[in-house]
Write a structure and sequence with these properties.
With 172 residues, the chain is α/β, with parallel strands linked by helices. It is 44% helix and 22% strand. The protein has a single domain, classed as Nucleotidyltransferase, domain 5.
Length: 172
């Protein structure tokens, strides 16, 4: 059994989903979104994301955090903001000692649907089915976060966190 927290990073809305993985079943524990207002200064938005991430980690005690790898779109301003939000999420996980795993959208689609080119409605429906939910989680970022958590569960027997290297300095 493993508790996995999936995160779809953003700065207006961060989707999160916590699932319990008891192979081969996924059981939803908690899911939702962290939202910030556009009228709020960007630094305050990052603080809100950081604090809420810490709260969820403290409450649900995940053994792994799976997060979507950042990919560049056409809007450099947006990607920079998402990267900064992603940074505070990674910092929260690191401070809480939770191993972090990154997945590309292609890896998530492959793990959840078996098809790397699956469309968003296909992903959402498979996520709903795998979690035995009555409805597709909303907003989309929440469904995406749950899919990322499922992806990690599917890959957890294969992927292990990178071991920490210890370097010793020896005087001659």
């Amino acid at each position: 059994m493993m508790i996995i927290m999936g995160i779809d990073p953003g700065y207006a809305l961060v989707g999160f989903g916590v699932v319990k993985y008891e192979p081969p079943r996924f059981i939803p524990v908690e899911y939702g979104s962290i939202t910030t207002k556009a009228s709020c200064p960007f630094e305050r938005r990052l603080e809100t994301i950081f604090r809420r991430t810490i709260e969820i980690i403290d409450k649900r005690k995940p053994e792994a955090i799976a997060i979507e790898k950042l990919f560049y779109t056409n809007n450099a301003k947006t990607v920079i903001g998402v990267a900064e939000a992603r940074g505070v999420i990674l910092l929260a996980a690191q401070l809480k000692g939770v191993p972090i795993f990154e997945y590309t959208p292609l890896q998530v689609k492959q793990a959840v649907t078996g098809y790397g080119q699956a469309l968003k409605p296909q992903m959402q429906e498979m996520t709903r089915r795998l979690l035995c939910l009555k409805e597709i989680p909303r907003p989309d970022d929440t469904a995406d976060a749950l899919a990322i958590a499922i992806c990690h569960g599917q890959n957890s027997t294969v992927r292990k966190p990178m071991p920490q290297k210890t370097y010793y300095y020896q005087k001659n």
